[in-house]
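Colleagues,

For the teaching module next term, I've prepared a clean inverse folding example: a structure given as tokens, and then the sequence designed for it. I'd like students to try predicting residues themselves before seeing the answer, so please don't circulate the second half yet.
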């Protein structure tokens, strides 16, 4: 799949911008703080209905304007359609071919993207929250049911935490029945989320391991291990997962009431990475950590293709300058002729690769974009 046209209205520093793209590599050149990353972010938001840079939607709207609008024309093998997302103080309105979607979970997944930015190099050594977000955003693109389960889980978790705080403050167990009801609801969604994450990580492992071996010139073997909140057997099913959650919540109920918060669940899970049997998060070099992050991002491309039958659009936001020549070349060789790619950089000097030499090039300056070639 690829995006043919993009229109921005009141989006960050773009008042009124229309762009057309080819199904190849598109490079945005410009100094810092001119709007290169804003274009990349807008494509991501068009696909995911949320930003990877901020959780505050109002930051996406041009100063003193009431709304921001992103529109895109998407081309797939057997279909074409338009996407539209309007962001305002009242929320978001999403349309697919002019038909408004009742829920954002019905919208997300029609247009797939993989984002790779400098902060993604912290995927390995960053906090567990960073890795959970990585898992959720990627599964959510290819599985609408997962995205809905996650949304419901977060709402129930918020209600449960509010109830536990009240019980803690009041030193009361009067609401025990309500706590049990919320716990039962939480367990069902937690089990489904955990099971889906485990299966997805197994698939990602299958794609990432050979990629990592290639980047490391056959010297390293990468293993990805999903670390859930509960102990489960090697091949768990939904009933066994629910049973494990019931057992765990039963053991820690009193402690949760004492603490006034939910002490475990998918919102506390993590991903672990090992290279040649050693924990790369703790003992890996910076090079090994970056190779692991790059392998995961490239594996995403293949995994999404295997799930939906289309390659996603790749967004490389100022990441080439963060990679050495060998990793740069491996990345560019992988995407060559296969994936529509958007690249932002201050300069392509020093990056000698035919993929970039054949790319469409755009100059970005003060919220205005001009095509150079």
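(Answer key — instructors only)
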């Amino acid at each position: 799949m690829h995006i043919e046209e993009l229109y921005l209205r009141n989006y960050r520093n773009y008042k009124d911008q229309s762009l057309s793209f080819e199904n190849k590599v598109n490079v945005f050149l410009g100094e810092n703080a001119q709007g290169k990353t804003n274009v990349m972010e807008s494509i991501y938001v068009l696909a995911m209905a949320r930003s990877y840079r901020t959780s505050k939607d109002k930051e996406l709207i041009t100063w003193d304007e009431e709304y921001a609008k992103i529109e895109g024309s998407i081309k797939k093998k057997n279909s074409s359609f338009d996407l539209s997302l309007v962001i305002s103080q009242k929320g978001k309105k999403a349309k697919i071919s002019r038909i408004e979607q009742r829920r954002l979970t019905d919208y997300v997944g029609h247009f797939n993207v993989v984002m790779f930015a400098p902060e993604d190099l912290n995927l390995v050594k960053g906090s567990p929250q960073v890795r959970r977000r990585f898992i959720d955003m990627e599964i959510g693109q290819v599985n609408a049911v997962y995205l809905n389960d996650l949304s419901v889980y977060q709402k129930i978790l918020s209600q449960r935490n509010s109830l536990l705080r009240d019980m803690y403050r009041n030193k009361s167990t009067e609401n025990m029945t309500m706590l049990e009801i919320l716990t039962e609801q939480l367990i069902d969604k937690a089990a489904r989320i955990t099971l889906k994450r485990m299966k997805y990580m197994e698939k990602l492992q299958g794609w990432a391991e050979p990629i990592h071996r290639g980047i490391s010139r056959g010297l390293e073997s990468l293993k990805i291990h999903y670390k859930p909140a509960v102990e489960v057997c090697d091949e768990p099913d939904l009933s066994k997962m629910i049973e494990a959650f019931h057992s765990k919540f039963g053991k820690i109920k009193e402690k949760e009431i004492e603490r006034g918060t939910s002490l475990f669940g998918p919102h506390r899970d993590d991903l672990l990475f090992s290279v040649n049997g050693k924990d790369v998060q703790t003992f890996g070099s910076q090079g090994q950590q970056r190779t692991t992050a790059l392998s995961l991002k490239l594996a995403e491309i293949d995994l999404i293709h295997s799930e939906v039958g289309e390659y996603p659009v790749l967004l490389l936001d100022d990441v080439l300058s963060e990679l050495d020549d060998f990793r740069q070349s491996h990345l560019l060789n992988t995407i060559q002729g296969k994936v529509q790619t958007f690249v932002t950089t201050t300069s392509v000097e020093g990056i000698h690769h035919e993929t970039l030499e054949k790319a469409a090039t755009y100059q970005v300056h003060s919220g205005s974009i001009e095509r150079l070639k």
